[in-house]
Design a protein that fits this description.
- This protein has 2 domains: 3-103, Beta-Lactamase, CATH 3.30.450.40; 111-220, Beta-Lactamase (2-Layer Sandwich), CATH 3.30.450.
- Strand 6 and strand 7 form a beta hairpin.
- The protein is built from 7 helices and 8 strands.
- It has 222 residues and is an alpha+beta fold.
- The radius of gyration is 29 Å and the shape is elongated.
- This is GAF domain-containing protein.
Length: 222
């Protein structure tokens, strides 16, 4: 049912009351759209209780065509209480994870450590690199680059003599599934040749692609 059809329910929910329907006959005259919607869903009896937080209705929990306790909403109220508690826990956990992520980002930024994801497509050999703002800033990478352009920007500036070793390190990440670290010279647009440390490991292997995740740190310039 749409919000305009739930008006009667929401009025009751806002008063912390339940919607209890013993049958649909009485609805046909007073609320024909509600009657039609419930009939289309083959609902003849119903108990719906509100989910309320901070004095507001945030949802509801309903049981269609209950066999027992049609006159008593206490059991559904208990379930609604458990559900609301779990919703609050998940919301708090999500906020905590976001705070931790922001804290980690601040720490990595202060240490001049950037985060990257490399996707290696098996069908056409295409490689795409996704970098976080810290790595983008460290490498002076243009913000508007696509993942393909970001990979080319990074790979094309690896010094020629170091390219075989970098490819070998990427291969070891895939073969071992363990963390692999390598340091190599990299040509920075503003600082010239610098020393770059790349740490990463394989995170996902599918028939279509291999995904590596890791960190990048600018060690020093000339």
């Amino acid at each position: 049912m749409g919000p305009h059809q739930l008006g009667r329910w929401l009025t009751l929910f806002d008063q912390d009351q339940s919607v209890i329907l013993f049958g649909l006959d009485s609805l046909r005259a007073v609320s024909p759209q509600e009657w039609a919607d419930l009939t289309d869903q083959d609902i003849q009896r119903l108990i719906a209780v509100p989910l309320r937080a901070n004095g507001k209705t945030v949802g509801f929990l309903g049981v269609d065509n209950p066999r027992y306790c049609i006159h008593d909403d206490s059991q559904i109220r208990v379930l609604a209480g458990f559900l609301l508690t779990r919703m609050n826990q998940e919301r708090n956990e999500r906020r905590y994870r976001m705070l931790m992520q922001e804290s980690n980002q601040d720490l990595l930024r202060s240490l001049k450590v950037g985060y990257w994801t490399l996707e290696m497509h098996k069908k056409d050999g295409r490689r795409e690199m996704i970098v976080d703002p810290t790595m983008q800033e460290l490498l002076a990478m243009p913000e508007f680059f696509s993942p393909c352009e970001s990979y080319h920007f990074w790979a094309s500036r690896v010094k020629n003599t170091a390219q075989p070793a970098v490819e070998q390190a990427l291969g070891q990440m895939i073969e071992t599934g363990q963390l692999v670290q390598i340091e190599f010279p990299w040509e920075h647009d503003r600082q010239g040749e610098i020393q770059l440390r790349l740490s990463g490991m394989m995170m996902e292997e599918t028939p279509s692609l291999t995904r590596l995740n890791g960190y990048c740190r600018l060690l020093s310039g000339r």
